[in-house]
Design brief:
By secondary structure, this protein is mainly α. 73% of the residues lie in helices and 0% in strands.
C-alpha cells in the first residue's frame, strides 16, 4: 500500500492488539462477547486468545475493526 492509500485509513498505525485492548477496556469482555458472539470473548477471554483467533479468521477481524471504528470514530 502506498502512503496515499493509508492516509484515509483510520486504523493505520493501530495494531490488532491495541484495537482489542481498547474495545475490552471500553466494553468489557462480557459485552464484547454479547456484541460479537466470538468464543474468544466469552470463554476464558484474554487479549492473547483473541489475537490468536482474529489472526486466523479475517472475517472476524473485520467485524472487530468495524466495531472499533463505530465506537471510537468521531
Amino acid at each position: 500500500m502506498s502512503i496515499t492509500t493509508q492516509k484515509n485509513n483510520p486504523l493505520h498505525g493501530k495494531t490488532l492488539a491495541y484495537v482489542v485492548t481498547q474495545l475490552s477496556e471500553h466494553y468489557g469482555w462480557a459485552e464484547l462477547g454479547y456484541l460479537l458472539r466470538f468464543n474468544c470473548f466469552i470463554k476464558d477471554p484474554s487479549v492473547n486468545s483473541s489475537l490468536k483467533f482474529l489472526r486466523k479468521n479475517e472475517w472476524a477481524r473485520k467485524q472487530v475493526e468495524q466495531l472499533y471504528l463505530d465506537t471510537f470514530s468521531a
